[in-house]
Structure formats: structure tokens, C-alpha cells
Amino acid sequence: MQDPSSAGGSKRMTGERGEAFWRGALKGAKLVVAPMVDASELAWRILSRRYGAELCYTPMLHAHVFVKDARYRRENLASCPEDRPLIVQFCANDPDTFVAACKLAAPHCDAVDLNLGCPQAIARKGHYGAFLQDEWDLVGKMIKRASSEVDIPVTAKIRVFEDIGRTVEYARMLEDAGVSLLTVHGRTRNQKGPLTGLASWKHIKAVKEAVKVPVLANGNIQYLDDVWRCIAATGVEGVMSAEGNLHNPALFTGTHPPVWKVALEYLALVDQYPCPPSYARGHLFKLLHHCLCMPENFDIRRRLSKTSTPAEMVGVVEMLKERMEPYHRGDQPWAPEPDSDQARLPFPPWLCQPYVRIPPEQHLKKVQESQKRALERARIQKEQQLAEEGLDKEESDSSKRPMVDEVEGETDLSKKKKKKMVRNPQKSFTSGDQYEKCACKNPKGGRCAYELCRKCCRLKCYTFGLDCPGHRILVKTKREKAAIYYGQQEKLKREKEAQEDVQQQEQQQEEGEQKRRLLGEETDTKWEEQGQDWEENQVLETQEKWEKEQAELQEISEIPVKEEGQEEGQRRIRVPNTVKEGEGHVEPDRHPDKMKNNLPNGYIKEGKCLLGSPVPPQVSNGMHGDPEELSGESYINNQINITT
Question: Positive or negative, the Cα torsion across 105, 111, 114, 118?
């Protein structure tokens, strides 16, 4: 058994930690906007903060879906720097799932909250919210694990039991499990809808006195004065508002602005921070509720119910503003009917103010009266139908099931229709078929552009490429967008291919220039190498040529030539015709002095021709020293006599 002293020390530590969390991360927030399904989205939170809210919660998020679906996380964790401090609320019934969801949300908020107060039928079916009140072990395990494994504080929001003592024990159990802050809604899980009634501040006060952690109170907050009365009566640290905030976002400022001003400001935030159209439409129905209940504004109500974009909603609000602003400015007198609902309001219907529910007893009485009126309308309608068909009433009654059981006095209306009749007493609910039939015998869509049921409308739209805004079947629009998209993709593809071709050509040109540069360098090197070899070859060829010439001249000098008048021992060699006959000059390049320089070394010495003879020959006339021409067969008269 746990030591009472240790339990008290643990509570003190938990209380100190919770106090530090409330004063630090939450900045001592006293004015809080409650978590509301499909209602406390980012745009509404920003609007509420502009009108005095100090702390906001996200809508209740399903922990299992949050862990599995990345898109669900991204959409519901949307926030901005202005949206702090912020607490993310989860519904869960499994410790592992709850801890995993808390870890994923931790970087995006200041704390996580476990919903233990949702009383709706969906919570009963999903086994979460207020329907975990009797499973203390499971709830305690989820809180304990999350508080020890998650880096940010864990809080909880609960509803009370009818017994105050059991409510206090429940709160202490949650404190021991590790919650850093506790929100107490002073109603039981059976107090909901028309049977809501008043919240019990006595239960809230008892919980606050029993625990050390900070406590927020929820229930009966409709005006700013209610906030201070609740804090004074219960001793809580702060107050949370849900329905009062939905009808007047300026509740925490104590003001009542015109409904169109707040509505247009909210729709501007929706453009900046988008949300589903159903969220925005629901907010407008609550903001404009008192104006839309006026018979002269029923057409605006119907038009608002068909809107699907912020622009359409802005048009509806502007239409209402145009009608009601003359009353607000005082240009027209406001004189409602004395018995009307608008006459019983504390403020004119065009100003933001709370929607006050009637007591449950009065509601039940109203339901009975509505049922009687519905029965009377059904009886009259049936009689008119029988009269038009010309049938006898007795025959009809004997052949058809009666609408009213005379013994028990109950109608044959379904339970669902009875609920609808309670919510809208002015609507007629009869057993007859009120819907027009499509060709396939299904009811026609009330907003269908082609007056067909959804199935036939879808088939028509897909067959002929049409749009039906009423059924939200946008085949034509989607196909046009797809054609534009694929056309853009094809254009981008062609541009990319052209760009690649240009890049490839530039690359090929660059490679060609690089090859030519490399080839030019190799050619220059080759020619340099070949030039050195050529000079050496020329020297060798010149040397061989002169050696050959010398050998030929040697052979020629040894050939004997005999002519008349020639002395024995004289030899004659024939030279080319370089000196013309009868002229006494020699061509410049054949002058004997130059020929001396053209002959090999030792060929001419001191004016004498040495043709292999040891005795220098005497040159008596001009001679040509080309060995090839000396060995020719043609002779001229010019002769060189060589005397040995």
C-alpha cells in the first residue's frame, strides 16, 4: 500500500509542475477557447485571439487516424506564430496509439490533451471521450505513459459524475497519473443537445479544492461577466468557452459587434488559412443565427445553405448587411413583433450575442406540441389527397394502414423524422412521398442541374463531359484541367528536348574544337621533329651527291678522246653550251670564278682544275663544273684542254 506521505509529496510535485506549466508555457491564460469538432480550426482560433482569447485548443483529433495518415496530421496541425499558446486534443482508447500521437504532435504545440468529455453518439460507438469514465485503469495508464514518455505536458478534459464525491475521486486519479492541467465541464455525459441544461459549478469547485494542478472551468459562459463570476465562485485558474464563443467571438472583450463585421473578418482569414467549406458555413449559421430566424431573411438562409466557396459566402453576408445595416445605423426604426423570438433577445438580432437554450422541461413540452401540429397537418393533407383522387374515406381507411393508432395515439413517423421535427417544428413531415422521382425511380437531386438522381447524373456527366455543381460532379472541369496540365507537360517536354539538343550540339562543337586543338599541337610537334630529320637528311643527301659527282668526274677525266691535231697524251672533256659561239662572255652563274666555288673542295686550286691528276691542270677557257652535264653526249665548241 502506498505511503500517504509519499502520495502527498507526489501530488505537491505534480501541482508545482502544473503551476509552472500554466504560468510559463500557457502564460497564465484565463480566457480559453474550447476544442470543438469542425469548429476550432486555425482561422477561427486566430479570430478568437484577436478578440481576447489567451489560449486555444485544436478540434478533437482521432489519435489512430493521426498516427496513420500524414495528410490528416498536416491539415489539422496547421498553425502560425500568432497561434500560440496552443494545445492539441486527442481522443484515444489505446495507450500505445495515444503516446505515438502525442510524440508526433509535440513539436507543433505547447501541450497535448486527452478528451474524456465528448458525449456524442460517435464517441459511444468509438469507445472514447466521456464513455471512458468507467475505465479508470485504461485512462490512468494512457495519462501515465504519455506524461512520462512525451516531452511536453499532458492535460485532460472531463465531464462530471452526478455524484460529487465520485467526480473528485476521478480528478484525483488523473492527477496521480500525471496530468499537468485539468479542465472540468460541469455537465454529465447525458446532458447534451436540447437536454443540456445548466452546468454545475459546485462540482467544479469541489474538484478545484481537491487537486493541486491548475483547473479550467467549462459551462454556463455566455458573457464576460460570467467569466469573472465563475472564477470567483469556483476558484479556478481560468474559464473555457465553446458555444458562447461560436455565437460571439468577441465574448472575452465584453463587446457585441455587428454580425456581418465578424463574419467578413472571419472569411478573410479563411482566404488566408483555408478550411473545408462546411466549417466556414457552420460558423456563419451560428454567427447569423438570430438574423436568419427572421421570416424576411429565409431566402438568405436558403442561399447560405447552398454556398460552397468563401466568395459565395461573402456575397450572402453582404446581402444580409445591406438589409440590416439601416436598422443598425438608425435610418429605419426597429420594431419586432412582440411575440417573436427577436423581441425576447437582450440585443438586436444583428449584434453578436449568445444563443440561450430553453430549459429541458420546456423543450419536452414544445416537442409534444410540435408532434400534435404535425399530426394535424398530416391528417389535413391526407384528406385533401383523398378528395382530389375522388376516393371514399372509408374505403381508403380500410385498404391502407392508418397514420394514427387510435388506441395508443402514436404516429407512424420514424424516430429520425421525429428528431427532425423537433429541430424544425415549422417543417411538415408526412408519410407520403415528398420527393420527385428520377427515371430510375430514385429521388431527384434537389440541386442537380439536370434534375436527376446522383447515379443518373454521374452517368450523364461522364458520358457527355458535363458538370453538375449540385452533385459536385465536375467531369468537364477536371477534363479541361487535365488537358491543360498534359499540354503544359508536353510543352515542357519539347522545350526540354530542344534544350538538350542545343546542349548536345554545343558539346559536340566543343569536343571538335578540342580535338582540333590537340591535333594541331601533335602536327606542330610532328613537323618540328620532321624538320630536324629533314635538315639531317639534306646534309646527308648533299654529301652523297657531291661524292657521286666527284666519282663521275673522275670517270670522265679518265676517258681518252683523240682528235686531229691533238697531241699524244692530251685529253678533252666536253662541257655544256654555257658560252654562246662568237661571244666572249660567260653567264654570271657560269663564270669560272664562281664555278670554282661550286666545285668540291680540291677540284679547283689556284686557277687549275684537279681531276684526279697529281699535276694541277691549266684552265685555258671557261668551263662548266656540273658533273652530270660533263658526262652528256652533246658537245660544244668550247673546250677545256687539260695538259697532264
Answer: negative
Q: In whole angstroms, give the CA distance from residue 116 to residue 93.
A: 10
Cβ proximity of 54 and 240 under 8 Å: no
* Cβ count within 10 A of residue 254: 11
pLDDT tens per residue, range 7-24: 555 566 677 889 999 999
Backbone phi, psi, residue 386, to 5°: -70, -40
* Same-domain pairing of 122 and 247: yes
Taking the C-alpha atoms of residue 621 and residue 609, their distance in angstroms, rounded to an integer, is 11
DSSP 481-547: HHHHHHHHHHHHHHHHHHHHHHHHHHHHHHHHHHHHHHHHHHHHHHHHHHHHHHHHHHHHHHHHHHH
State the helix-helix crossing angle for 310-329 and 259-272, rounded to 10 degrees: 160
Q: Which residues contact 61 (CB under 8 A, 6 or more apart)?
A: 72, 76, 88, 89, 90, 91, 101
Closest by CA position to 251, among listed 294, 291, 214, 222: 222
Cell numbers linked to 309: 466557396
- Mean pLDDT for the chain overall: 81
Closest CA to 575 of 508, 632, 502, 526: 632
Average pLDDT of the segment spanning 470-499: 90
> What is the radius of gyration, based on Cα positions, of the chain?
57
Q: Assess contact for 77 and 41: CB atoms under 8 A.
A: no
CB 269 within 8 A of CB 48: no
Which active-site residues does the annotation give? 118
Cα distance between residue 622 and residue 640, in whole Å = 7
Mark whether 83 and 150 lie in a shared domain: yes
Helical residues (DSSP H) of 222-309, grouped into ranges: 224-234, 243-247, 259-272, 277-287, 289-292, 298-305
For position 557, what pLDDT does the model report?
62
pTM of the complete model: 0.60
The reported pLDDT for the residue numbered 8 is 55
Burial class of residue 105 (count of CB atoms within 10 Å of its CB; 0-12, 13-18, 19+): buried
What pLDDT score was predicted for residue 374?
A: 82
Residue 623 in this model has a pLDDT that exceeds 50: no
Residue 614 reports pLDDT greater than 50: no
Let me know whether 128 and 166 are in one domain.
yes
Closest alpha carbon to 86 in 49, 125, 135: 49
Provide the number of structural domains found in the chain: 4
- Parent domain of 619: 571-642
Distances from the Cα of 150 to the Cαs of 104, 107, 109, 144, 183, in angstroms? 10, 11, 12, 10, 20
Q: What distances in angstroms separate CA 575 from CA 206, 269, 341, 578, 631, one per listed residue?
A: 151, 121, 150, 8, 8
Overall average pLDDT of the 308-332 stretch: 94
Query: How much of the chain exceeds pLDDT 90, in percent?
Result: 51
Q: What is the pLDDT of residue 206?
A: 97
Rounded Cα distance, 582 and 271, in Å: 123
Whether 277 is covered by a domain: the verdict is: no
Q: Which of 222, 239, 255 is the last residue of a domain?
A: 255
Sorting pLDDT into bands at 50, 70 and 90, what band is 631? very low
- Considering the domain architecture, whether residues 188 and 133 belong to the same structural domain is answered as yes
Please determine, for residue 143, whether its predicted confidence score (pLDDT) is greater than 90. yes
CA-CA-CA-CA torsion for 258, 261, 262, 264, nearest 10 degrees?
150
Q: Quick check: 74 pLDDT over 60? A: yes
Q: Are 176 and 141 in contact (CB under 8 A)?
A: no
What's the grid cell of residue 23?
504560468
Residues 15 and 147 in one domain: yes
Residue 405 and residue 442 in one domain: no
pLDDT tens profile 359-400: 877 877 887 888 888 888 888 888 887 777 765 545 544 544
Q: Which residue has the cell 465541464?
A: 185
